[in-house]
Amino acid sequence: MRILLVEDDRGTADAMRRGLTRYGYDVTWAATGRAALAAPEPDLVLLDLGLPDLDGLDVCRELRARGDVPLIMISGRDSETDKVVGLELGADDYLVKPFLMRELVARVRAVQRRRRGELAAGTASEPGVYGRLTVDRRAQRVLLDGAEVALRPKEFALLAFLTDRMGELLPREAIMAAVWDSNWFGSTKTLDVHVSTLRGKFGEVLRIESVRGVGYRTDVGPLPDHPEALV
Question: pLDDT tier at 219 (50, 70, 90 boundaries)?
Answer without folding.
Answer: confident
